[in-house]
Structures are given as structure tokens and as C-alpha cells.
Amino acid sequence: MTPQLLHVLIIGGSLALFGLDLLLPLGVANAVLYAGVVFLAALSPSPRLPILTAGGCSVLTIVGAWFSPSIPDVPLWVALSNRTFSLVAIWAPILFLAQRRQTEALLRRLNDSLETRVQSRTAEIAAKELALRQTQEELRALTSRLLTVQDEERRRIAHDLHDDINQRLAMLALGLRTLEQPEHTLPESVRTTLDQSQEDILTLSNDVRHMAYRFHPSILDDLGLDAALRRLLDDFTHRTKIKTLLVNPPFITSPSKAIATAVYRIVQECLSNITRHAKATCVEVELFSSERELDLTVRDNGVGFEVDAAQHERLGLGLFNLRERALAFRGTSRVQSQPGQGTEIHVHLPLFEPSSL
Asked: Total domain count for the chain?
């Protein structure tokens, strides 16, 4: 309803009721009808219109009291009480509307206060979430850096063991071998001790070479991840007598040195857990890659375990290491296992390093 139409209805209704008041004695019916006009004025968004309408209707009621017909032998107090009731009926809606608007104003203030508090709380939660995400990113970057430093240190130690200490042992063995020349006449006991020392040096050299390989397999740098995994699984089978199978189609995109090292260490950790806990007879390693991501699955037919319970036991440390290595490269890890049903470990890694983000 337009404001113009509303004004016309208010004015027209008031005048019509005033005309009716002039025809009816004592203003018997006009009280409720004038109140209806005031309620009609309450439809306007203007807070002053209902008050002006009530004031106008009050004036019309008082004027009508002078000009409306009277009934013979009716006491004056009856007419006055009718007019008083009319005035009360006219102003009662104003009191109702005032109370309603006061309540609405209070509700609006409460609502605004609640919205302000909600916005403040939301902003506080958002700030905490942002700080938490930043902390997680910093921890992930720190973990990645620590793993990289650790791998680099292992690579350096392996290089020192293989190229320095092992070479020295070889020179020492060569020096002892010169004592076996015919021109050196040695007692039998000394020759026996010399032979034993050469065997001990050869054994020590092999131990140093294996130690260097455990620190960092040079084959990973020289021949790549595929050859390193095959060598790792062959050594695992030779050592534990557990059958292994590697499913590794050619890489579409070759992984970086850091990611290749991470995959190797994850498989190494899985095999270590299988050796200690699984009692398996067969292990399958699947490695698939696309242009942007790499998926690794290590599956065994061992005794299995309850994943939730393992988080609080010694086995949980190995699972934690797997997860941290995956998170360090913005990857994910998932463990599926049930008692008596073996274990599957799935690792998903993007083929880019965190530093490139």
C-alpha cells in the first residue's frame, strides 16, 4: 500500500466516522471504529502518523459530542462516559504501538550486540585458525628442512665411510699383503696372525661398505629410485627370507632427489616395521606416478593390527615417521589394517618440493 493511498484512507475514514457520529446519539459505536483508523495509521513507517491520527480522531470525537443528537431523559454522565471510553479506545493503540516499538528497538539493540559479538568471536577464531595454519606450515617447512639436512648428513657420512675409511682399510690390507712376499721370511705364527688380520680387515671393510649403504645408498644417486628400491627389496629378501614383489611402471615425470629419497626412506621404514612386527611371508611394493603426483603402496600378508591402538604403542613411532615424511612434502599417508588381515600403507606425494610453493 502506497503512503498516498494510506493517507486517503485515514482521512476518509476519520471524516466518515465523524459524519456517523453526528447521526448517532451518544457516540455509542464510534469508539472502536476510531481505534481501527489509528491501527490503519500504524501501517505507515512514519512513527508520527499514528499519533497525529489519534489526535485528529480525539478532536473529532470531542466536536461530535457537541453536535450529535441526544436521547431524552438520559443522564449526562452516560454521554460523558461514552466519549471518555471513545478517547481511551483511540489512544489505547498508541500505547500498544509505543510498547511494541520499544520492544522492537530493544530486540534490535540486542541483535546488533549479538551480531557484534558473533563477528568479534568469528574474527578471533579466524585469526587463531590463520595462526594455527601458519604454525603448521612453519612446522611442515621445518620438518622438511630437518629431513633434508638429515639425508644430506647421511649422504656425507656414507661418502666419508666409502671413499675415506674404506680406502684406508684397503691400503692397510695392501700393506699387510706386501709382508707375504717371498723375500720376507716370517715365522709361521706371525704369518697366521697376518692372515687373520687380513681377513679381519676385509670383514671390517665389508661392514663399513654396508654401513655406508645403510646411511645412504649411492645407487639412489647413480641409477635412480627404481634400481635403489629393487636393491633394497633384494637385500630385504636375502636377509629375512620374505618374498618381495615390486610393481613400478616407468616414471612419466622423474621425481626430484629429495622426493626419491623420501620414497626410499618410507619403503625402508615399512620394511623395518614388517620385520619387527608383521610376521609376513610376502611383501608387495607398488609405485605409480603421473605428471604431477606419485602413489606408493606397501602391502604385506602379516598378522595385522588395530590401527588406533598402534598409535599409542611402539609401532606408532614408525607410523608417525611415515606420516611426517609425507607431510614434509605436502603429501598424505593412510594405514589400513585389521588383525589377521595384513597391512596396507598408502602414501600420496605431489611431484614438487615444498620450497617451490
From this structure: 3
Do the domain assignments include residue 88? Answer: yes
- Which residues fall within 8 angstroms of residue 192, CB to CB, at 6 or more apart? none
Residues 91 and 202 occupy one common structural domain:
no
Write out the residue range of the structural domain in which residue 153 sits: 137-212
Question: Are 187 and 234 contained in the same domain?
Answer: no
Q: How many CA atoms lie within 13 A of 175 on its CB side?
A: 7
C-alpha distances out from residue 255 to 216, 224, 261, 293, 329, Å? 17, 9, 9, 9, 12
Q: Which of 164, 189, 212 is the endpoint of a domain?
A: 212
Against a cut of 0.85, is the pTM above it? no
Last residue of a domain, one of 65, 81, 115: 115
223 and 201: one domain? no
Cα separation, 94 vs 98, whole angstroms:
6
Q: Cα separation of 38 and 52, whole Å?
A: 9
pLDDT by residue, tens only, the chain of 357 residues: 677 777 777 777 777 777 777 677 655 546 667 777 777 777 777 778 888 888 888 888 777 777 766 666 666 666 667 777 777 777 878 888 888 888 888 999 999 999 999 999 999 999 999 888 888 778 777 777 777 777 777 777 777 776 777 777 777 777 777 766 665 566 777 777 877 887 888 888 777 777 776 777 777 877 889 898 998 999 899 989 999 999 988 887 788 888 888 899 899 889 988 998 889 999 999 999 888 899 999 999 999 888 877 665 555 567 777 888 888 888 999 999 989 899 999 999 998 755 443
| Whether the Cβ atoms of residue 51 and residue 41 lie closer than 8 Å to each other | no
Cα separation, 212 vs 210, whole angstroms: 5
DSSP 274: I
Domain membership flag for residue 68: yes
